[in-house]
Amino acid sequence: MTELVLEQPTPDSPGYLRRNRQAQQLFASLKESPSAIDEIAEFLVPYVVAPHNRKEAREAILDATERQIKELLTAVMGGSLLGAPLSKTTPGGG
User: Fold this and answer.
1) Which of 11, 35, 56, 86 has the most neighbouring CB atoms within 10 Å?
2) Residue 77: pLDDT above 90?
3) Of 30, 59, 58, which Cα lies nearest the Cα of 43?
């Protein structure tokens, strides 16, 4: 499986409430709408810094486990990654 490296928004990143709302809505709709799967993948792709190729990043997201997807959404919402085989970076390479 391709390793996903996420650039997690910082507490100073603009759009916190928008990201949070969209992530919650997408995750809630997952059980009701199969199209939510593609919407979640598209929502997460901009935060993936590796693989660099957007198509590969999207495929890696679609191949991720349930736990990984929940952790990615939590990270984008301002939480933290809970320790799956995912890496995270912060702006500036930290």
Assistant:
1) 86
2) no
3) 58
**Tally of domains within the chain:** 1
Where are any strands of DSSP class E within 1-94? 5-7, 48-50, 87-89
Q: Alpha-carbon distance 21 to 57, whole Å?
A: 23
The residue range of the domain holding 32 is 5-89
Q: Is residue 70 part of a domain?
A: yes
Q: Tens digit of pLDDT for each residue in 33-55?
A: 888 899 999 999 999 999 999 99
Cβ neighbours for 67, distance < 8 A, ≥ 6 positions apart: 82, 84
- Answer whether residue 94 is part of any domain: no
